[in-house]
Amino acid sequence: MNANPSPKVNWPRVIGRAILHTVVITVAIIWLLPSMGVFVNTFRPKQAVGSTGWWTILVTPFDFTQYSLENVINVLAGNPEYVETCRENEEIIAAADSGACDELSNSRDRRTCEQVAAGERVLRRCDLLTDLLSSDGMARAFLNSLSITVPSTIIPILVAAFAAYAFAWMEFPGRQVLFVVVVGLLVVPLQMTLIPVQRMFNVLGLTNNPNFPFLAIWLAHTGYGLPFAIYLLRNFFGALPRELFESAYLDGASKWTAFWRLALPLSVPAVASLAIFQFLWVWNDLLVALIFTSGRYSPVTRHVANLVNSLGQDWQVLPAAATISMILPLVIFFALQRYFIRGILAGSVKG
Amino acid sequence: MQGQRWWVPWLYLAPALLILFAFLVYPTIHTVILSFMDENGEVLVTEHCKSDVCEWGIFHNYWYAFHNPSMQEAFVNNIRWLVFFTSITVFLGLVLAVLFDRVRYEPIVKSAIFLPMAISFVGAGVIWGAQAGVYKWTNPAKPQVGLLNAILVALVPGFEPKNWLRLQPWNNFALIVVGIWMWTGFAMVILSAAIKNIPKEILEAARVDGANEFQIFFRIIIPSISSTLTVVATTMVINVLKIFDIVYVMTGGRGGTDVIANRMYTEMFINFEDGRGSAIAVILLLLIVPVMIANIRSFREQEATR
Amino acid sequence: MRKRLAFLTLAAVIGIALSLPMSGMAVAQEECVISVVGVWSGDELTAFEEAVAPFMEENGCTMDFESTRDPAVLRTAVDSGNPPDIAILPQPGVMYEYAADGALVALDSFMDMDALAEDYAPIWLELGSYDGTLYGIFYKVANKSLIWYNPVAFEEAGYEIPTTWDELIALSDQIVADGGTPWSIGLESGDASGWPGTDWIEDIMLRTAGPEVYDQWVNHEISWTDEAVVNAFETWGQIVGNPDYLYGGVEGTLATNFGEAPWPLWEDPPGAYMHRQASFIVGFILDQYPDLEMGTDINFFPFPSINEEIGPAVIGGADVVVMFNDRPEVEAFMEYLASPEPQEIWASMGDFISPNQSVSLDVYPDDATRSIAEAVVNAEIFRFDASDLMPAAVGAGEFWSGVLDFVENPDNLMDILERIEEVAADAYAE
User: Fold this and answer.
1) I need a labelling partner for A84 at 20 to 30 A (CA). Which of A15, B57, B156, C344 fits?
2) Which residues on adjacent β-strands are paired with residue C137?
């Protein structure tokens, strides 16, 4: 906007820009306000989360006693009571070492302390890093989530791109009807498909298959993600100018080359947005993961669901869990921003 | 388009059609069959009617779906969702995509709108729910912990905190707001991708010709992205039909907030009524037909003009 | 363009590479794995894992525990012919559904029934049976007929523990006269909102109409519009129909989450004086006030009797363990679970009451928990949580909604009951 430095101030334009910035920033803040609660509560102690508003920290933002990492540590250790248990264990071990078991207030702690002192029992000392990396720790769940999500994003996009290309640029009988049926499948409720799909996996031997532990869930997410992927890509492929393809065919390009060299590269913004959403849906999915993965192959969402007990106790760790599991999707969203570029088509359109 | 062998398109379609058949079509057939069966899916519903008269014969489960009071309430609520959720997400998504396109900090503000999409439904329940979220009610004698009541108490003198998730019919709108908060980012990202595909030269030529921003918006942007607008609107309509998680997590459909998809889930998995649950699922499938017809038109138009 | 495609390809390769080592690792698989789908998670799961550790060690087995409260998960697994070995269900009603479908393994086909009869009171075996066959073992009992109070606050104000309903109401009036609020009630519970209110109705129903009518009510042998049910709601109405009794009034009762409802008892000055809730509420209280001691700072009294002719009664809830596959190691595991050993381990860790009479009362971590457990084992009249026994459309549906609607507008009682009756007539029909 300062390409044309002029001595005269263009007042309508300045006012217009000011209104634009105000509106944009206000909307962004309104949208962020609810999520701020999650972010702030991630770093507040358990007792504060449910009893005072998160904005109360704004009164004295630099009073660091109002913050606590206990929820973050509890989530990373995969145990809602981790911090507390460690503190108790240290206390009991210390009492046992100094022979002061009687001074403990809780009768159960006293008994444990006596056992420790007598050498009958070894109390675990907590080590966050070891617990995090253990076979059922959060790090493993994170890797599982990646192993599930990355192929479950790429496979459906690829399969959908082929189909969308055919729907957009090939002529065959029943094209519109078939396409509408495919899009109509978007409305099939996931829950209704689970039983037939699980039966099919049983027949194919994909249920809890130790050699291909993720194959079932990759296929499932591919199936559930396809209708939207085909729908969106067909729309963007279809919007490409006809001359582009015609001149390519004149130059001797085949359908196959036109797909890889024209359709796909020119639809990068659409593919990028599709990739983000498919990634998010798979990353945040709990139901499909509960049904098509078993124990040690379970993703982060299943570990998070395990933090809260059957009555909903310890829900205070959920903001921390939400923040932690949100980090990667947001990083990817930022990383893909550079594909949301203007004018990919510019210059490629003849005339 | 000429000179292709007849089977070439099917080669490109085969992987998708195969997977779609296995994961969506075959289960749908299964659901349609179940919708004519009794609660265990074993015998035809006519042979095992729960009421004395098997109304509508083999379509008895559909009769139930249309006559059950909870279902009728759900239909009304789904219409509320349809009107407000769809229009506001599409409108806001479009306006924001256009506005954000004009500022240099676009990635940052976009992320702010997109952020809710990255939060799981459990997280959304914590953010908005009555337990600790935006809609929480706290004893008026004490400072409010819920954001909405806190803001209103601070701004409106003498305001009494409200129990937003029980206050009929406003509780439905409270839930719709959560939906809008979560899904506007979706509409914005996709519409933004479409807007970025409009060649810059066209916009600049219009500006040189003296068109103002409103004219550019209505004469150039809207027509250029109309097919994408259809895609986003259709997706939102389908979302409304399937809307379940938000309602389930926040109210369980109680207090007059029930929706069709929650009824389906309740009948199927909580009440063990396979026939009724399946019939509701089939109704959802049928409701989408008009939207699909609108889509055929939109795509014919796109193909005619490209 | 090429760069972008390269990026995509790279991502694909990384993705597949990431998943390959995992696939390799799985080949060395254990021989004995027992799969469990259950509602327990968090601290419950940690405790359960510890309780089964001796069995797993001795038999060289591992447990694959899948926690979920989504009933769709178990339904899908069972209906697709791929059920877990063991399931832990939150309500016996769900067990009866699976038993009726023939999906469960009958426990009397391999267990020593005489030993079971010695360990469990007849009511638990009866509740665990469908059509005369035993399918389930109960775990993690909650004593629901408890009223919690803050002994320090009671002593300061000079209040006595009421032993009859009239004394309870008199005490409530006394507290109001003293400028306080007697009750803190919270019915909010997300998708399950309303359930704490059904516990009130059940406690009152058992004490006003007696155990026989209570059983008829559970089995829908009396209508929801029966005088006994109306009377139970109206009796509760003496408390929830009086806004002066309620912390935060009617609005607060409907809006407050059940886990948060007891908190005002420990405020200074007390926001409220009494809170009726099951034994598991202690965990929620200690989460918010970690320094309180059970017995000295937190205490309870039994829900007082209402009709003098009906003796002391207890309502209890519990989760139920059922079995889907009859492999020998699963049978052995089920036998172990029914035995006192794992239950004593869990009981000693707190937050657990065993229905097994052979579990020694000494294992409970404190006197208060011991007396709660004692009340369950020695109850003169013991009944299971009615809503958990009813078909889900009523017990986890219209009954919950009805309770909320009643609190919102007690004058609508007959409409509410007629609506529940309509749903019940359909849900109980065969």
Assistant:
1) C344
2) C321
Tell if the CB–CB gap between A31 and B200 is shorter than 8 Å. no
* Distance from C-alpha of C317 to C-alpha of C353, rounded to nearest angstrom: 11
CA distance C73 to chain B (A): 9
Return the closest-CA partner of residue A152 out of C18, B202, B251, C1: C18
Q: How many CB pairs under 8 A join A and C?
A: 154
- Chain C CB within 8 Å of residue B249 CB: yes
Q: Which domains does chain A have, with CATH numbers?
A: 11-68 (no CATH), 71-131 (no CATH), 135-339 (1.10.3720.10)
- Shared domain for C296 and C347, answered yes or no, is no
Residues whose CB falls within 8 Å of the CB of residue A310, separated by 6 or more in sequence, listed in order: C39, C40, C41, C42, C44, C69, C90, C319
C9 in any annotated domain: no
Report chain C's mean pLDDT, rounded to a whole number.
Answer: 91
Q: Say which CATH number the domain at C303 has.
A: 3.40.190.10
Q: What's the domain count of chain B?
A: 1
Buried b (16+ CB within 10 A) or exposed e, C247-268: bbbbbbbbbbbbbbbbbbbbee
Are C239 and C258 found together in one domain?
Answer: yes
Helices and strands (H, E) in chain A, number of each type: 17, 0
The ipTM is 0.92
Asked if residue C406 and residue C334 are part of one domain, the reply reads no
Distance, CA of C349 to CA of C51 (rounded, Å) = 9
> How confident is the model over C292-334, as pLDDT tens digits?
988 889 999 999 999 989 888 999 999 999 999 999 999 999 9
Tens digits of per-residue pLDDT, B66-104? 999 999 999 999 999 999 999 999 999 999 999 999 899
CATH number at residue B70: 1.10.3720.10
Any CB–CB contact under 8 A between A69 and chain B?
Answer: no
In a shared domain, residues C397 and C366: no
In this complex, the chains that touch C, judged by 3 or more CB pairs closer than 8 A, are A, B
**Residue B7 domain flag:** no
Query: What is the distance in angstroms between the CA of the first residue and the CA of the last residue of chain A?
Result: 28
* CA B63 from centroid of its chain's CA atoms: 25
Interface check for B250 against chain C (CB to CB < 8 A): the answer is: yes
Nearest chain B residue to C98, by CA: B272
Q: Do C251 and C367 belong to one domain?
A: no
Question: What pLDDT is attached to residue B132?
Answer: 86
Report the alpha-carbon distance of residue A17 to residue A11 in Å, rounded.
Answer: 10
Per-residue CA distances from A351 to C22, C128, C293 (Å): 53, 80, 83
Domain membership of residue C225 (yes or no) is: yes
Instruction: Indicate whether B29 belongs to any domain.
Output: yes
Of B115, B268, B302, the CB nearest to A191: B268
Note whether C396 contacts B: Cβ–Cβ < 8 A.
Answer: yes
| Residue C430: C-alpha distances to residues A248, B120, C44, C104, C132 (Å) | 68, 39, 36, 20, 19
Would you say residue B196 lies in a domain? yes
Together in a domain, C162 and C180? yes
Cα torsion C12, C15, C21, C22 to 10°: value is -140
pLDDT band at C1 (very low <50, low <70, confident <90, very high): very low
Q: Which domain, by its residues, includes C324?
A: 32-143+317-380
Rounded Cα distance between C374 and C396, Å, is 29
Clarify whether residues C282 and C423 are in a common domain.
yes
CB C402 within 8 A of CB C103: no
* Residues C163, C273 within the same domain: yes
Judge whether C219 lies within some domain.
Answer: yes
pLDDT(A289) > 60: yes
Higher confidence at residue B116 or residue C2?
Answer: B116
Q: Which residue among C26, C42, C46 sits closest to A211, beta carbon to beta carbon?
A: C26
- Indicate the pLDDT class of residue C21, thresholds 50, 70 and 90: very low
Residue B287 lies in a domain: yes
Three-state secondary structure call for residue C309:
coil
